[in-house]
Amino acid sequence: MKQIVNVKRGLFAAALLLTMVNIGCTKKEISAVGADGRYKLTVGRLGASSLISPMVLIATEKQYFDKYNVDIDLKLMDSATSSEALSMGKMDCIYQEFNQQMASADQGAKITIFAGNRSGGVYVIARKEDAEELYDIANWKGKTIGLIGPTTNIDYITDYVLRNDYGIDTDKDVKYFKLNDMVSLQQALKRGQVDITFADPLYTETLDEQGLTILYPLSHVQKDYVCCRQMAWTTAFEAKPDAYKNYLKAQILAYRDYYTDRDAAIKLLLAASGQDEDYVVNYIYDRSKNADKYFNPDPNYNGVLAQFKSMIRLGYTPGARELYEFFNISVYASALKEILQEYPGDPYFTDLKELFLKNNNQYPDFEKTYKTYF
């Protein structure tokens, strides 16, 4: 596969800068609890409505953080500086897209991935006349795939699945065509410059009149593929794991409320996003209309590992460390176990247990540690 050299250099440079920043940081004292005996966490979030965490919103509104003795200071942040803010300890944790942070952590930045936030949210689209053929992913061989430049997680998901699940040599048997945005990619698809591309639900309303159609959500290509993750400042994560555990316990409770109290969840999303109800229902809440966008706190080590392997293969990160060296599943597992003990037999929490066992079983010594853990 032909790659854009300066894209790789840019990602390497950003990761290297964060590593150098970490080395030069003044050490900051970390207290497990505040003077009042409560856990304190500064949590960064992006302003983009698509990256809102309903679990954090609900846990705040319903005082679940208070229930588990956690005070959070929720701060808006800029995506361009979020990695630096996290690795320098200006934030205790953030939730957002994670590929740049993963490349930085690979090269030594003090960042630990510890939980999930969102999966799904993108459609695969094609021309109507090609839809029947391209519905079968095996037929993507020999085709041109349109991607957003310089790089996104869709690059890594596509590369991994085509190579590992379909035996397609993505260096030789597919071509990649990159443009800066989804609208331009749809025009390229319409003109025949690409055969397949991807679209956020917001960009699908005019597909039919352009002669284009949705094949399926990207989750059909890779089930439960990962998008946004929750990431911690490693120094704080290691100093006060119980703070992060209780932070996750509150979110696990909120996960159940998100799916059982639809009206309350939508009301909170309306207030937080600044969007109208049609937007919130169709593009955030309703999985049948939002490209299978699914909010859940499961870490999904397996899904992140697939992207990490592709990032290494494509030259976007060197693979200087093993993923498990900066990826922790034990704190989430401990939080989920305590919730299962507190609410025995609850089907939503039992589902999260099954999700954890399925999506994290490639973590080292997983069978030994978690087979009878719960």
Key features?
disordered N terminus; 374 residues; 44% helix; alpha/beta; three-stranded antiparallel beta sheet; globular
Query: How much of the residues is beta strand, in percent?
Result: 15-25%
The count of strands amounts to 12
**Shape, please?**
globular
Cα radius of gyration in angstroms: 21 Å
Mean model confidence by pLDDT: 91
- SS class: alpha/beta
Describe the structure in your own words:
- By secondary structure, the protein is α/β, with parallel strands linked by helices.
- Helices cover 44% and strands 17% of the residues.
- The protein contains 16 helices and twelve strands.
- The strands form four sheets. Strands 2-1-3-11-4 form a five-stranded mixed beta sheet.
- Helix 7 links the parallel strand 7 (144-148) and strand 8.
- The chain is globular, with a radius of gyration of 21 Å.
- 45% of the residues are buried.
- Mean pLDDT is 91; it is low at 1-7 and 19-27.
In short:
By secondary structure, this protein is α/β, with parallel strands linked by helices. It is built from 16 helices and 12 strands.
Give the SSE layout.
Layout: H1 5-24, E1 39-46, H2 54-61, H3 64-67, E2 70-77, H4 82-87, E3 93-97, H5 99-106, E4 111-116, E5 118-119, E6 123-127, H6 131-134, E7 144-148, H7 153-166, E8 175-179, H8 182-191, E9 196-199, E10 212-217, E11 228-233, H9 234-239, H10 241-260, H11 262-273, H12 277-285, E12 294-295, H13 301-313, H14 330-342, H15 347-359, H16 366-370
Parallel strand pairs: 1-2, 1-3, 7-8
Antiparallel strand pairs: 3-11, 4-11, 5-12, 6-9, 6-10
